[in-house]
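By way of example, we now present a protein record of this kind:
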Amino acid sequence: SVLVDLARAAGVQVCERTRVVDLLREDGTVRGLRAHTPGGSLEPRARLVVGADGIRGVTARRLGLLRPRD
């Protein structure tokens, strides 16, 4: 959680206990995401969206980046 603390100190919005369900696109570019939290739904937008949900996560699936398993 040192990384989370550093991110917050740098002004990053960190959302814990949040499940990303889709990506928001405009003109073919990812501009945000749709997520569910215990407090309701979110649709934050950003210039840069980082998908850190793993090789088989929502980000890879929505972008069509999954490769067949060997």
Notes: DSSP finds two helices and three strands in the chain. Strands lie at 19-26, 29-37, 40-42.
